[in-house]
Structures are given as C-alpha cells and as structure tokens.
Amino acid sequence: MKKVKVATVWLDGCSGCHMSLLDMDAAIISLAQKIDLVYGPLVDTQEFPEGVDVTLVEGAVSSQDDLNKLQKIRQRTHLLISLGDCAVTGNVPAMRNSIPVNKLLQRIYVEGAQEGKIVPTDGVPALLKQARPLREFVKVDICLPGCPPPAKTIATVISDLVDGRKRETGLAVKFG
Amino acid sequence: MPQKKLSIRIDGELISAVEGQTILQAAKANGKYIPTLCDLEGLTPVGACRLCIVEVSGTDRLFPACTTPIQDGMSVTTTSKRLTQDRRISLELLLVERNHVCAVCVSNGHCELQSMASAMGISTVRFVYNYPKLGVDLSHPRFVLDHNRCILCTRCVRVCAELEGAHVWEVTSRGIHSRIVSDLNQKWGESRGCTSCGKCVQACPTGALAEKGWAVEEMVKKNDKISALVHRREVQV
Ligand code: SF4
Ligand code: SF4
Ligand code: SF4
Ligand code: FES
Q: Taking CB atoms and an 8 Å cutoff, what residues of chain B touch A170?
C-alpha cells in the first residue's frame, strides 16, 4: 500500500498543537505505519516537498515569512488542515492586532528589556501588521479548533483521511 | 380571570398554550428546544441575538421566538436548513465582532457562546475577524467588565434594572460601536447606583462580566439562581 505523505508546519504558535499531535498514545504507532512524515519540526527535511497529501499547520500567519511558507505549502499540498485555534481564529498571537507593530516591538525589545535594548532586524522575518488565521490567506480544507485540539480528535481526523473514510456527522469541536 | 387557551402547532405537533406566552415559552413548556443566547428566564426578552429565530407558516419572514407572542392556530417550525444556516451566521458574526480568545478567558469551558458554537458544530467562521481595540474596566472592587468578550445580549442591563432595581447598565452608541456602560458612561467602580450585588455577573453568558480573582477557566456563572430568584419573588416582569 502506498503510504500517505503527511507534513506538519509550525507558524506563529506555541508548539502546543504539535505536542498534542504526539500525545495520541498507541494510535501513533499504527498511524506511523500508514504515513510518511515528509516535512515538519519532527523531521529533518529542509525544503517543503512537492506532492504532499495532507499538511497540518499550527499557528497564525504573523510574518511575511509565514505567509510565503503558507502559500508554497498550499500549492504543494492536496489537503490543508488548520490545526488549533491560532491557525483557525488567530487566537493568542492575534492579541497584538490592535497595537501598531513598531510600538509593539519598541515596548518589548526596548522598554521591556533589561539589556541590549534594540529591536532585532537581522535574521528575523518582518512582522505583518496583524496575525491572522490561515483561511484569510489560502483555502483551508479542514479546521480543527482547540487550544490545543485534543490528541484524540487529531488522531481521528488523520486516520479517517489515511483510511479514506468520510465522516458524515461533524467531529466534536470546541474553541479554546 | 383565567387565561385563554390557544392551540398552536410546533414542528407539526399540536400544542395547547396560554394567551400571552411567547413562542419560546410555549415551546419550553412543551419540552421543545429552541437555541437561545440573550434570553434569560425571568427577564424581559429583547430579541438581541437572533439565535431563537423560527419559521411561521404563511409568511416568509423569520421571527425571534423569545419576543414573538403566540397566536391561535399559529404553526411554527423550529428546525430547518434555512434556520440552521441563519443561526450559524448570527453566531459566527458574534465570534468575529470582538476578541474571543477562549484559551485565555476566565469563562473558558463555562461560556454559553462557546458551548453554543460547539453545539452548532462551528469549527471555523466564514467572515474576516474584526480584532477591535477594546478596554477592560477594572475599577470595581469585586468585578471586571471586559468589552472584548461582550456580545451585547443586554442580560446585565435587564437584570440590574428589573431585579436589582439599580439600573446601572445601559447600551451606548449604535451598531458595531455599541458598548455596555455603567451610569452615565462612568467607571463601574465610581457608580453610585451599583449595590455590588453581582447579579449582572451571574447573568452574563460570557466572560465579559466576571468576579475578580479567577484565572482562566475558573469563572462559573450561576444564572439559574437569577431565574430561581424571580420565581421566589413572584415578580412579573
Ligand atoms: S467569552 Fe466565551 S467565547 Fe468569548 S473568549 Fe470567553 S470562553 Fe471564548
Ligand atoms: S453588581 Fe448589581 S447593582 Fe451593580 S451593576 Fe451589577 S447588577 Fe447592577
Ligand atoms: S456584559 Fe455580558 S450580559 Fe452584559 S451585554 Fe455583554 S455579554 Fe451580555
Ligand atoms: S434568544 Fe431570542 S433573540 Fe436571543
């Protein structure tokens, strides 16, 4: 049987959704036999590959770099999943959205710093004006809210996709 | 004077109701569920959230069940594709209008807005998030008002005016600029009318009004107490 190519991506999130993904106990073993993890924080691939079947994206779109990544991922992925509230609603990263970016950086890196009071610019991507959910930039196929979404829900969704099951009634969903 | 009995149909079923009841009251009395958010038993209904909309045969218009009085021979439909769709839109609009960051909210896990979204199977919204800049009033010694979580249901306004008799809360401005204000747009802590009874906090369906000192997920409201109080007092509002 051909293995399903799965990628995971970490944008502006806390990695909690990836923790939840790893938290699915024994289910991860049976799942691991059916999928090929081709990209993500858990594997060593540098470049997002072509022809990925399912990509789970954690985090909001906060920087130009996030946006570039997301657009490439969308082009190269058959099915895109927004994983967790940051990806679905903006959530905690979006709490900065009513503060202008320069004021925000000034407050944190200069006023709030004890030493090295300087806003970093080298090697860090420029922030977008606001952190926003994936679906405001690209087409998203499935949204899994939750902060983080329960491991069981993630496991169910992935194994449904891998085994080609269609779910008629919706999954139990909850923001937060 | 005995109240006049009317007969209506709810989802095809013949029901005997009392003149003066709203569609929602008649439905509830007969064990039929209609989703609600702004309604709170014991307070005057205002029709603010539009979740309780129903179809009434003979007209294409939708009616809020909480404010529409029954009429003899009326036939009401409480579930349909159109109603599900429209209720969902209303709820999505509430979710995008202000900042609902459930993960860091005192009411996470005990919020009527959040649980209604879950019940409706809402996993995302179709609208663009508004992310407005809104304040938090911390001036009251015991309570907090966080405008970020307010859905303008006006339960606080009504419970304070109708049950406590203090009438501290009002709604100011219009449309998307509407805000809950205490007294004449003063800080809550400076309100001379507020008795600190906490009824508004208990009645509030979301994390907008909360007791101080609770962390994320810790604020559990007792709004059944409000309805119980009304019944005990036998107040007719
Ligand atoms: S008020 Fe309810 S919906 Fe809004 S953030 Fe708090 S828990 Fe979530
Ligand atoms: S605490 Fe009581 S008196 Fe004060 S605003 Fe709330 S309901 Fe009104
Ligand atoms: S503060 Fe709470 S009770 Fe008052 S209008 Fe807002 S959501 Fe409703
Ligand atoms: S419950 Fe009827 S409009 Fe809100």
A: 121, 123
Residue B155 has pLDDT above 80, yes or no: yes
CA of A113, closest CA in chain B: separation in Å?
25
Which of B160, B182, B222, B226 to mutate for ligand 2's pocket (most ligand atoms within 8 Å of CB)? Answer: B160
> Which residues, in sequence order, are bridge partners of residue A39?
A7
Interface test with A, best of B95, B96, B131 (most A CBs within 10 A): B131
In chain B, where are the structural domains located? Answer: 5-79, 104-232
Q: How far is Cα A31 from Cα A27, in angstroms, rounded to an integer? A: 6
Q: So what's the pLDDT on residue A125?
A: 94
B104-232 CATH: 3.30.70.20
The answer for B 120-149 residues in CB contact with A (under 8 A) is 121-125, 128-129, 131-134
Instruction: Report the SS3 class of residue B134.
Output: coil
pLDDT at B237 over 70: no
Biggest alpha carbon distance in chain A?
58
Summarize the confidence of residues A49-64 as an average pLDDT: 97
Indicate the pLDDT class of residue A48, thresholds 50, 70 and 90.
very high
Domains and their CATH numbers in chain A: 4-95+129-162 (3.40.50.700)
Beta bridge partners of B179: B172
Give the HSE-up count for residue B8: Cα atoms under 13 Å, Cβ half-sphere: 28
Q: How far apart are CA B189 and CA B177, in angstroms?
A: 23
For tokens 């293995």, what's the residue?
A: A3
The radius of gyration computed from the CA coordinates of chain B, to the nearest angstrom, equals: 19
Confidence of residue A57 (pLDDT cuts 50, 70, 90): very high
CATH class of B5-79: alpha beta
Identify all chain B residues contacting A145, using CB atoms and an 8 Å cutoff: 123-124
Amino acid at B196: S
Q: What is the mean pLDDT of chain A?
A: 94
Report, as an integer, the average pLDDT of A118-132.
Answer: 94
